[in-house]
């Protein structure tokens, strides 16, 4: 016989659950990360958002109950299999721009949101007035700020100098990284051993070295992190420029990792033919028929289903020189969230001496 819901003990239990439901924090095993640069009205549009827009973003996070988490702690928890709070999200900035301190920091401090700034130290050493000082960074660490590696001079990390050997290139790049680590420890007392690659560029050799050195790395492809992610080249969502609209931000914050078993992008470098990427999905009940892939500057990719759980997405035409990407999204079964995956290719100009591995 089924128990009646009118039983006094059961009624009391239901009342307690209802009472404490707003305070229950449900576990999350993935993490979206927001990427900012400038918080200013007077800086390049593509990497900037206004103080008002940044305030709007942070107010939305607070009002909708998002839990802004410390980036390094959250990543350590994901790797260890420990759950994150429900609606966890992390906030990052690239480059050590002073307008982060002037315009962004007061808003973050008011909300008590932790954040991470990836710094390049050359302009700091040169006392460039547009960049943070160590004194400002020390102040920010007392209010949730963490400072991490963005190299000394912000180079294209895969480009060799004229006449430079592969060995000399790698030693130069290692020095770009290790010098920042020394500066972080000297001026701030510690380093989280995280690096954001300038322009999002890295290769397997750099990623392997950094992993062996205990680093976590970040590119500039978009997506959501979980335990299956490549922790030497993690994705983040850009939230400035064309992506600063609150409607765009809402979609990204509601995103989840794409349920991929594997993918094959054909290599890091694009050529003078259209790129393609093959995605193999995990077994499960997914809305694969609603998968859509978009090519930067070209519209939708052509999808060719090889099997019921494997598809190749091909760009309509070849990329121009620079960096191009394919972003793939798929609604989850609730239709309230999107699974998200992105891949970036580099198409070097003939004059650019990129390493070939």
UniProtKB/TrEMBL annotation:
Keyword NADP set for record: no
GO annotation terms (biological process): carbohydrate metabolic process
TM ranges: none
Location, primary (coarse class): secreted
Annotated localization: Secreted
Gene Ontology CC: one annotated term: extracellular region
InterPro entries, sorted: Glyco_hydro/deAcase_b/a-brl, NODB_dom, Polysacch_Deacetylase
Pfam families assigned: Polysacc_deac_1 (PF01522)
Record key words, sorted: Signal
Keyword match Signal: yes
GO MF assignments: hydrolase activity, acting on carbon-nitrogen (but not peptide) bonds
Residue ranges occupied by any NodB homology domain in the UniProt entry: 87-357
Name by which UniProt lists this protein: Polysaccharide deacetylase
Source organism of the structure: Marinomonas mediterranea (strain ATCC 700492 / JCM 21426 / NBRC 103028 / MMB-1)
Lineage per the UniProt record: Bacteria, Pseudomonadati, Pseudomonadota, Gammaproteobacteria, Oceanospirillales
């Amino acid at each position: 016989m089924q128990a009646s819901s009118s039983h006094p003990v059961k009624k009391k239990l239901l009342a307690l659950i209802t009472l404490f439901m707003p305070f229950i924090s449900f576990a999350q095993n993935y993490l979206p990360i927001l990427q900012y640069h400038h918080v200013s009205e007077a800086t390049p549009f593509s990497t900037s958002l206004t103080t008002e827009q940044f305030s709007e973003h942070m107010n939305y996070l607070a009002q909708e109950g998002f839990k802004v988490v410390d980036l390094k702690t959250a990543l350590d928890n994901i790797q260890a299999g420990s759950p994150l709070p429900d609606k966890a999200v992390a906030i990052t900035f690239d480059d050590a721009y002073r307008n982060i301190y002037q315009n962004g920091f007061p808003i973050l401090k008011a909300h008590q949101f932790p954040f991470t700034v990836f710094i390049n130290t050359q302009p700091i050493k040169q006392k460039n007035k547009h960049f943070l000082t160590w004194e400002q960074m020390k102040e920010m660490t007392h209010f949730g700020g963490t400072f991490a590696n963005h190299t000394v001079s912000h180079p294209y990390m895969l480009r060799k100098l004229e006449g430079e050997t592969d060995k000399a290139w790698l030693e130069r790049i290692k020095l770009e990284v290790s010098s920042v680590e020394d500066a972080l420890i000297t001026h701030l007392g510690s380093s989280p051993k995280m690096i954001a690659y300038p322009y999002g560029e890295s290769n397997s050799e750099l990623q392997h070295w950094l992993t062996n050195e205990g680093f976590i790395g970040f590119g500039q492809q978009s997506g959501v992190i979980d335990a299956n992610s490549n922790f030497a080249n993690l994705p983040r969502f850009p939230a400035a420029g064309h992506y600063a609209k609150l409607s765009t931000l809402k979609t990204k914050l509601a995103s989840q990792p794409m349920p991929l078993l594997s993918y094959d992008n054909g290599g890091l470098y694009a050529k003078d033919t259209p790129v393609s990427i093959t995605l193999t999905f995990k077994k499960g009940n997914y809305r694969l028929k609603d998968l859509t892939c978009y090519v930067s500057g070209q519209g939708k990719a052509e999808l060719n289903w090889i099997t019921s759980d494997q598809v190749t997405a091909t760009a309509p035409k070849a990329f121009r020189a620079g960096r191009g990407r394919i972003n793939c999204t798929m609604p989850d079964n609730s239709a309230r969230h999107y699974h998200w995956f992105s891949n970036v290719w580099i198409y070097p100009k003939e004059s650019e001496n990129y390493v070939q591995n």
